[in-house]
Amino acid sequence: MGQELIHFIHTRNFPFARIRLFASARSAGKEIEYKGKSWKVEEAKPEIFDELDIAIFSAGANTSKKLAPEAVDRGCLVIDNSSAFRMDPNVPLVVPEINAQAVNQHKGIIANPNCTTAVALMGLYPLHCEFGLKQFFAATYQAVSGTGAAAIYELEEQVKAWVSGNNISPKIYPHPIAFNLLPHVDSFLDNGYTKEEMKMQNESQKIMDVAEIRASTTCVRVPVFRAHSVVINAEFKNPVDLDVARQAISDFPGSELVDNPENGLYPMPIDFAEKEKCGVGRIRRDMVFENGITFWVVGDQLWKGAALNAIQIAECVHQNGQLKVM
């Protein structure tokens, strides 16, 4: 995610005096380059936050729980990409196209949502605004890059092994991912769902500020390098109109309507990798829910699902003059 953050800081012209990169002691000293510029990675220690206005965390929940409070105590605003604070009632969980005003409530930490939730809401939220969301079912098709660079390499190597007739040996995932689907993203809970699946309901409730919304999700890892896809069957409180639905999607700043299936036009991961907006298509009346719409949404989980959303949060805070924690 670090490279993506540097990309957006530059391409979106986010104002900065200096960029500093931090990681564990093991990674300290490495050089990171971007378009002819380079930065040396420093070790993340509590005292570094004395010199910073804002820190974007993407190092896992344990690191965030340890270092984020240190940063806040030293006057540094934290935008956290882990799951550590998302459901904390004192921490805003923000998708700027939906609840940008929530940044005003921060007490030093603002949480970035789970990548799949952020992508799904680019289709769900504009429809909620029109018809009033009641509940939804979702099935995700999640790219291996959501697991990290090692998972991308594993998929590449397994494809090569399969083509060569060699044995496939999984390391990152419990089973081969090449030419396979794994209905297993994150760890399983006592209710039979995974943590990833429960995030869709819990985070959507908080971001949209509708506690009564219910969701049943199945998350699936697929042999795609980049960009997550989600199929959603949503039930609404009010009667639905597909023309109104398509217009709502088209007008929403975070989504792009791609909905002409008769001519083979619908969102695909290959088209929405490294794209800021999420594609929404296959919009149709649901065959089960009376006031229901079924649709398909695709988005780059490293961009809208992570780095882009984090920078958008930083932009909101900067525009509101709340960058520094007092």
Layout: helices, strands, pairs:
Blueprint: H1 2-11, E1 22-23, E2 31-34, E3 37-40, E4 42-43, E5 54-57, H2 61-73, E6 77-80, H3 96-99, E7 109-111, H4 115-131, E8 133-142, H5 149-164, H6 195-208, E9 214-221, E10 228-236, H7 242-251, E11 255-257, H8 269-272, E12 278-285, E13 292-299, H9 303-319
Parallel strand pairs: 1-4, 5-6, 6-7, 8-9, 11-12
Antiparallel strand pairs: 2-3, 8-10, 10-13, 12-13
Please, could you describe this protein's structure?
- With 326 residues, the protein is an alpha/beta fold.
- It folds into two domains: 127 residues, 3-Layer(aba) Sandwich (Rossmann fold), CATH 3.40.50; 185 residues, Dihydrodipicolinate Reductase, domain 2, CATH 3.30.360.
- Helix content is 32%, strand content 21%.
- The protein has nine helices and 13 strands.
- The strands form four sheets. Strands 9-8-10-13-12-11 form a six-stranded mixed sheet. A three-stranded parallel sheet has the order 5-6-7, with helices on both faces.
- α1 crosses α9, α4 packs across α7 and α4 crosses α9.
- The protein starts with a helix and ends in a 7-residue tail after the last helix.
- The model has no long low-confidence stretch (mean pLDDT 95).
